[in-house]
Amino acid sequence: MRVSILTMAVVAFAGASAQAASFGPVATVGTAPSLATAAVAGTGGTFAFIARQQTGIVGAVRRGPAAAWVTRTLATGRNYSMRDPQIVIDPAGTVTAVWTVDQPQPALVAAVAPAGAAFGTGHVVARLDDADGARPRLVALASGRVLVAFDDRPFTGPHQLSSTVRLKTLVLVAGRASPVRDLGGVGAFPALARVGGRAVLAFVSGTARCHLSVCAARPLLATQLDAAGRRSGPTVTVAGDAGATFYPPRVTTVGSQAVFAWVRPGHGAASPPAPFTREFSARPLHALTVARPFPIFNAPGQGTPSVAILPGGGLIGAGVGAGPPGGAFGGGAELSLAPAGGVWQTPSVLTDPSGWTTVPRLSVLGDGQVLAIFARARIVPGPVSYDVIAAEVSPTTGLTQSTLGSSLATDDAGGLSSSVAADGQAIVAWPDDHGGVDVVLRT
Known about the structure:
By secondary structure, the chain is an all-beta fold. About 5% of the residues lie in helices and about 50% in strands. The chain has one helix and 37 strands.
């Protein structure tokens, strides 16, 4: 599908006109080598990020168009887990960051930057059994509460972790944590999205059963959580064939509309992994469509497809294509559109398959413009380097692409982070290959 057709489809599905905006220059914050970032954009010129470094965790906040970045060391030492840090901002401007540590005792750690202020130091909010296995996910509610969902494997004996994984929640208010709540049952790979004063939680149910790196399918379930982190309403089955290793499910919401994305496990070359999406209503939680195949995927792949909801109720999805037969790097970044309740259309190629590409992270602005952020390897002599690319699909100006920087230190999806605020301002952050964190703002 040609880009011009994609643009016209965005106009039809979004039913809106776009305002022009642009990204500013790259600013490098700090000098220490970084391994992963998490960034968030708030309204009124508030931006923040945290970075996992070799020597600990650092956080930075910028409040106001002319303000400087205020950077603080939130934790020191090398005892963090390999899970990527998480960060959110509430409507009042309070920023909350969460990460996990391994030693001296596995724990979930949080740091808060109150509205108008910089980050305080990190503090333990929950003890864990398996910090490397825990996958914390956050959502900021309008009440100022931050809902945290994570999975944790209990010990069955000395130095012996169980094969079962428990889902748990807690609530942070200004950094103060509620008691941990066990949701009951076995589940892993939590995904969270806000629906009013509540949240939709998606997770893979059951215990993983694998043989020779081939894992059996497991159900993808969803439920709603109230502001205290308790189950609220029924638990529904989104799909019976999720749980592919390295492909955690995704959920995105707008109003009462929720869209789930997952990857069905493969069973050898004859039956490779395959992505699907399904639309639900979140009030109450019930299915609106059957599961629909998503047309963009490269297996062994680059991650679960990214899906966003357009203002008119249609969907836009992104992934990495399969590429030409015999290609060394797979395909390039691709986009596809689907009307509300409809099937996915033929994809539109954003980039040629010239290097390793990450799944674009999609955001839809209030004016109908779609923003996609992704990284792509540059094939040059010497060490491989990576470009950070922003693609914007506008109902008025069509498709534009720009390289935000060429200094990404890793192609790991955890290295690159981005966020878009309600007023359209955005932040993109990544570890600089010469040290520090590179930040680009859209204002």
